[in-house]
Amino acid sequence: MNTALTAPVQRAFTPGSALANTSTITARNLRRLTRVPTLMALATIQPILLVTLFAYAIGGAVHVPGTMHYIDYLLPGVLVLAIGFGASQTGVAVADDLASGMIDRFRSLPIAGASVLAGRVAADAVRNMFVVGLMLTVGSAIGFRFHAGPAAALGVVGLAVAAGIAFSWLNLLLGIVVRDAETAGLAGLFPVIILTFTSSALVPVATMPGWLQAFAKTNPITVITGALRALSLGGPTARPAAEALAWIGGLLLVTVPAAISRYRRAASA
Amino acid sequence: MGDQPAIAAEGLSKRFGQVRALDRIDIEQPAGTVLGVLGPNGAGKTTMIRILATLLAPDGGRAWVAGLDVVERAADVRRLIGLSGQYAAVDPYLTGRENLTMIGRLYGLGRRAAGRRADELLEWFDLAEAAGRQARTYSGGMRRRLDVAASLVAQPPVLFLDEPTTGLDPHGRIALWQLLGELTDQGTSLLLTTQYLDEAERLADSIVVIDHGRVIAGGTPGELKTQVGGDRLEVQAAPGTDPRPLATALAGLGTGRPVVDIRAGRVVLPVADGPGVLAELARRLAASGLRVADLALRRPSLEDVFLVLTGEPDIGTAHASPRGGDPDAGAVSPEAAALGRTR
Known about the structure:
The complex is a heterodimer. Chain A is mostly helical. Helices cover 77% and strands 0% of the residues of chain A.
């Protein structure tokens, strides 16, 4: 009889182990992404639809001063929209994991809670790289061009993915707080829809009534879209990029610690 | 650490709003033994496991796993425990093998070691053939076995299982009991909650019965059964006839008073010497001219335990007894029978 109460697996928390755990969780979430049909559709069909629908259905009606093609104006906006829509699935997934007991299992393991959340965000970032690449490809096929060179083009991808990381943390927090998959999905979508249509993502702010313009100009989606546009169309980029990074950084500063602390206390009934 | 109890609790308490989920629980489980925590739904079993497994902080009292305080040394406790909660927590979109490998990796096993451990467990839990299939294609029993296997990946010396056989068919229950038996033979300390007395009896070295967050009884299965008073004689009245005269005819035959279940048309009587009373029963039935549809001698169920320990036949929403017949019928004592008439 071996009744000694010692664990055969002993390992201290180290940065290396936290990284290994994060990558294990990332791999799990990426596997799910390829196996759940809804998630696959949201990462493939939806981004393509967003580009083509807005370009063809609205493109004829919108005249953007100083821009030759609407697709050049539109694409940075729908990138943010697609990433925002995708991020709502993060809240759904974490609420699902809470309800199914998966989070209980993870919390009973000797791993840092932040690894479980970071693994989710990292998987989202991989998905977003794919989504951004797909949308740029589809956009190019219907006339989108980068006008500021390859470095700025990489900046577009980097900034879009960084915005996605902030959105993912926000939705993680929402999912942990509301704990219900359907509610989390809606709670994640509503702000994106409202903020997108009151931003410069799809139409120039100048076409909006005065009272809305004030809001639209400071709206984070306007700010992030503005920075993406500056990077892809050319022109001064330092200020818009700094404003966008300030929004992303501010969002992370609030949501990351809140999500981690709520996760630690999360107790499924 | 070898001399420490596997699990101990002193005055463990937890409230959810107005509800006292746990009310000053004291337990002590020696290392290498199996403790069965028996109680109906809502008794506090899951809350207790969640506190011991570091998922929930108590708001009163203390608890230790292998001598380590579950609040202050939570991270260390997590290295010593395996947990399988009430709902099989496996990822339905991962294969059985991927689920176990993922847990192994999270415990810090290398890729190859995690794979080897997964294969070992899949073999042991009779899931080797389904190892490459996504868990969502598994039956309830397979999913539960995979879940228990996941809690064993790191060979934890202390294992918590929350109602491991709930929702399993009889075949699945027996298969899991066998596996758990092998496990505890190897020295694993196991705490399991159950609504089934026979399950606790089959697996546990000692049992605590909890209800409304309190320990209402404890001891070895034998001691508990002595308290409950032996076997149960169940007499089913002929269809359409009143079972109450049967209760009168059976009075004094057993070790306690007969309990009448009007809706089920049944009388249940605790008896010390089951087979011995059958002759006397037959004589009394013949003398009274009462007709019966069925006679059965059975082991006491959780309902019987609660009836004796709390005096309340109603054990909450628990549909507990695997052999108890219609769980909604609810046993009624002769005193309560008058009420039963008005239903």
